[in-house]
Amino acid sequence: MQVSRNTVSMAYKELVLENIILSIPGRGTFPNSKTSKFTKSITNNNLSKIEEIIDVTINEALELNYKLSEFKKIVNKRIEEKEKLLKNINIAFIECNQEQLYFFSKGIELGTGISIIPILIDEIYKEPDIFRERIKSIDLVVTTFFHYDEVKKSLANQKQRVLTIALDPLMETMVNIAHLSSKDKSIGLVCITDKFAQRVFQSIKQAGIKFLSFKFTISHDRDEVKKFLINTDIVITSPGRKKEVKKLISPQIPLIEFVYIPDKGSMSMLKLAILDIKREGGLLEKI
What we know:
Blueprint: H1 5-17, E1 21-24, E2 28-31, H2 33-63, H3 68-87, E3 89-95, H4 98-107, E4 114-120, H5 123-126, H6 128-135, E5 140-144, H7 148-154, E6 162-165, E7 167-169, H8 171-180, E8 186-190, H9 194-206, E9 213-217, H10 222-228, E10 234-237, H11 242-246, E11 255-257, E12 260-262, H12 264-280
Parallel strand pairs: 3-4, 3-5, 5-6, 8-9, 8-10, 10-11
Antiparallel strand pairs: 1-2, 7-12
């Protein structure tokens, strides 16, 4: 049976958070002997507490003139609603460029039952009513450090917590470009937005990669893109446009898809936030 690393990682974190196993840096992971000894008695105590809560709630319902059959329907309905919350977690990712939204919603694996809803930051201003409606079903809002203040301000009257993440270029992407490029090579980028192009340019410059020239196009016209690619030594595309561009260039021309991913620290924070949502049974509220 094949189990994804993300599933194993999340289950492992749940066991640590529930104090069932101990994780000791430099030594490894061990069963928590204290927890093991008292698990049975704790379970019995918890069961008694739950039964007591149920009895009190039933008595209160009867005092409010509810029939037991009516109360049962209400309880069953609430249980169904809670089950849906636990099975389906909605995470909104708010960013300024389509490319990053596309990759985050399609390329990040967070486990079954977790839906990523991509939202362009322009929606906050251009379609505020639609934005507020979409946010109602969201359990957690994720954005980058660049947009944190902007997003938090737009959600001032909402309950959702805003989690910030840092995005770095995929190391393999940067290594490929550095290996292929030189001061006499021209780089051409085919993407969707100017903002993505500017960010790619800055990432390449900051990495100290040498090149003769850098140009980009956001056109979707086949002939325009084909013309743009003439005399380009290295072709870079944003996520989602690689297949389209591959048909327009010679197999001898290097073609690289430029991908930004959340750094390890950000992914750990995101997974822990998801565990919090599961424990709380829904919306992760501001703290």
